[in-house]
Amino acid sequence: MTPAQHPSAPSLTRVGIARRISQDFREGDVINLGVGVPMLCSLFIEDDEDIFLHSEHGVLGHGRQARTQDEVDPSLATAGRQPIIPRPGMVVMDHAESFALIRGGHLDATILGAFQVSVQGDLANFWLPGAIAGAIGGAQDLAFCARRVIVAMQLLPRPRRFVNRLDLEMTAPRCVDRLVTDIGVIDLEDGRAIVRELVPGWSLEDAQRLTEVELVAAPEGIAEVTLKSDRDDLWHAA
């Protein structure tokens, strides 16, 4: 299934997925953003918000991802080598101290990308078949130790992303709490996939065609995804 097969239903872009994730951030949260779509969440954090972004190589309280070459400081980047800008109060620490922060359970959330996630919450995000080696980095520590694990995932262009059982190398078992996808928001609870939100125009039946996992409507009903932003790059048109 592709957007072309759903002419009446839009979907979220990568930026749109990041925007929806960022709407769950709360004042005082300490959050680690992974490479790719997760790092785009930083674009939606206002300067006056007390949200503390962490990078596992030793930065706490950094600002958003650099937008232009003029903003790039080659000495200031995330563990994924994404350039970031400083923020008042930012702390630079050594590697051991940074991982002590992670392993001590002080992260309110980590936002990760994934090659696959199972309905049990198993995560695979560091190695693909055919690659010489994977790059696991700090993903295992983040997945095991963060209080909440949210995965940014595009379901439409990539089959077999959300599955009953992983067939890729596992990063960490039973760790994923929520999927924020290009068609909606799915919570993983006790081996069940609870659909909380869907993009306007999508039904539960439409979403079911994208995955082998049995999808269950939230008890309170399925809400529509709402993005609190007027940016024009959040949606793929119907």
Describe the structure.
It is a single chain. With 238 residues, this protein is an alpha/beta fold. The protein has a single domain, classed as Glutaconate Coenzyme A-transferase (3-Layer(aba) Sandwich). A hairpin with a 3-residue loop joins strand 3 and strand 4. 38% of the residues are buried. The model has no long low-confidence stretch (mean pLDDT 92).
CATH architecture: 3-Layer(aba) Sandwich
**What's the pLDDT, averaged over the residues?**
92
Classify the helix fraction into a percent range: 10-25%
Instruction: Count the E strands.
Output: 16
Give a short overview.
This is CoA-transferase. The protein has one domain: Glutaconate Coenzyme A-transferase, CATH 3.40.1080.
List keywords for this structure.
alpha/beta; eleven-stranded mixed sheet; Glutaconate Coenzyme A-transferase; 14% helix
Question: Helix and strand layout, with pairings?
Answer:
Elements: E1 11-12, H1 14-22, E2 30-33, H2 37-40, E3 52-55, E4 59-62, E5 91-92, H3 95-103, E6 109-113, E7 116-118, E8 123-124, H4 139-145, E9 149-153, E10 162-163, E11 178-181, E12 184-189, E13 192-198, H5 204-208, E14 215-217, E15 223-224, E16 235-236
Parallel strand pairs: 2-3, 2-6, 6-9, 7-10, 9-11, 13-14, 13-15
Antiparallel strand pairs: 1-16, 3-4, 4-5, 7-8, 11-12, 12-13
